[in-house]
Design brief:
The complex is a heterodimer of chains A (about 290) and B (about 120).
Chain A lengths: L9 H14 L1 H14 L8 H21 L3 H14 L6 H22 L4 H44 L4 E4 L2 E7 L4 H18 L3 E8 L5 H16 L3 E5 L3 H9 L8 E3 L2 H12 L10
Parallel strand pairs in A: 2-3, 3-4, 4-5
Antiparallel strand pairs in A: 1-2
Helix pairs in contact in A: 1-3, 1-6, 2-3, 2-5, 3-4, 4-6, 5-6, 7-8
Chain B lengths: L4 E4 L2 E5 L6 H17 L4 E5 L8 H16 L3 E5 L3 H9 L8 E3 L2 H15 L1
Parallel strand pairs in B: 2-3, 3-4, 4-5
Antiparallel strand pairs in B: 1-2
The chains are: A alpha/beta (about 290), B alpha/beta (about 120).
């Protein structure tokens, strides 16, 4: 915070600034809301909602300027994010409205001090760092909240994760759907190996029809899973490889002698039954 | 601690105990390779159920045992590898390629019986 000519303290300037913002609260807030709808931000919310939010954001903003205590603003930003994220409000919108407010307030300062350029400069020196910090705080709060939601959802997906199913005596199926990251891959392997032991499985069909692509790490992990299963005495058949995954496996140079692959799940189960010595008879043959 | 080698029909069975020194492993290897011809055994089962960690020396020895037994005219089945051990081994690149594996002793014997039936 610059104190270039030392005539008045930044905190004094800030007080003056806050008084100005309080005085013109109605008008500035109005202007801000107009700018928000002009730039087509917060389209997911109604006019009344925007106005209500704008009012409380404005007050928190001025309060943060006054007290320079950002904890309250942080808490408010988090609370706001919690409410508006489910409505589909995007990061750029939140950052956008805060920056708009900053601009609206700066304009009003220009208007007020247009005849005293030196004073304007000093006021801006005090205002700008605080305003930027506020914008930062709100944006970070929003992004953190978003990340928290994403983490929560990932957790939920992981919990839904992947069942190891027994379809016949000694035959397990592991249908994998969705994106596999290294952590999920690890969990899958653990589940499968434990499943092989508890169900005394001899053949396992891993169906990856629902996996569009996997990176090299996960592909390697898949190969390791196949090998580890063999060490437990189970044969693994991998079904439903997409062209992209086939490409990845070829790129990392999988030993195809170790990998048993069949085009689709049905074919995989048929081959597994053959390995186990089952014979499926069609009604015609009977 | 020395690993006992049991004779069960045409099969020799060696059961690993929890902690084996490198010397014990070497002794087991020599014992198995000698006895497989002495008893005219057709197969060897090595049961590693009790091992909850497998270092690289142990798994290398297992593979060597299997290959030496093959050269002596019999087959080896490794049984009872724990899930965690299996994955750790694979990550170390110790996949016991070319060696038969089974879930436990029972499975190993069943596998060999099946095999003897078809080759007889």
């Amino acid at each position: 915070m610059a104190k270039r000519d030392g005539t008045s303290e930044p905190s004094e300037l800030l007080r003056e600034l806050v008084a100005h913002l309080r005085q013109n609260r109605t008008q500035l807030r109005e202007e801000w809301v107009v700018r928000i709808s002009e730039t087509r931000l917060l389209t997911a919310m109604t006019k009344e909602e925007i106005f209500a939010e704008a009012t409380s954001v404005y007050d928190s903003y001025v309060e943060a300027l006054e007290t320079e205590a950002f904890e309250a603003l942080q808490a408010y930003a988090r609370n706001l994010s919690e409410r508006i994220i489910p409505r589909g409000v995007e990061t750029h919108e939140v950052v956008g409205i805060v920056l708009l407010l900053r601009d609206v307030l700066a304009r009003s300062l220009f208007a007020k001090y247009q005849n005293d350029f030196k004073k304007l400069n000093r006021i801006l020196d005090a205002y700008e760092p605080a305003a930027n910090r506020i914008a930062n705080t709100v944006a970070v709060g929003f992004v953190q909240e978003r990340e928290r939601v994403i983490r929560q959802q990932q957790e939920a997906i992981r919990e839904l994760s992947t069942p190891v199913l027994q379809v016949r005596e000694r035959l397990l199926i592991l249908p994998i759907i969705g994106v596999i990251d290294p952590q999920r891959a690890r969990q899958l392997t653990e589940q499968l190996l434990r499943g092989i032991r508890t169900n005394r499985a001899k053949v396992v069909v891993i169906d990856i029809t629902g996996v569009a692509a996997m990176d090299v790490t996960v592909a390697n992990h898949l190969v390791q899973t196949v090998e580890a299963s063999r060490l437990l005495g189970a044969t693994v058949i991998v079904t439903g490889l997409s062209p992209e995954i086939a490409q990845t496996l070829v790129t990392i140079g999988v030993d195809l002698g170790k990998m048993n692959t069949v085009g689709d799940l049905q074919g995989g189960i048929e081959q597994a039954e053959k390995l186990l010595g089952y014979k499926v008879a069609t009604p015609v043959e009977r | 601690m020395e690993v006992p080698i049991l004779k069960q029909g045409a099969v020799l069975i060696a059961t690993f105990q929890a902690a084996l020194s490198d010397a014990d492993l070497n002794q087991l290897r020599m014992g198995l390779v000698q006895q497989v011809v002495k008893f005219r055994s057709r197969a060897v089962i090595v049961d590693v159920t009790a091992m909850d960690v497998m270092d690289s020396f142990a798994s290398r020895t297992l593979r060597e045992i299997a290959h030496m037994i093959r050269l002596r005219g019999a087959e080896t089945v490794i049984v009872g590898i724990q899930p965690e051990v299996a994955f750790a081994m694979v990550q170390l690149g110790l996949t016991l390629e070319g060696v038969a594996t089974a879930l436990d002793l029972e499975e190993g014997l069943a596998y060999l019986n099946e095999k003897f039936k078809t080759t007889n």
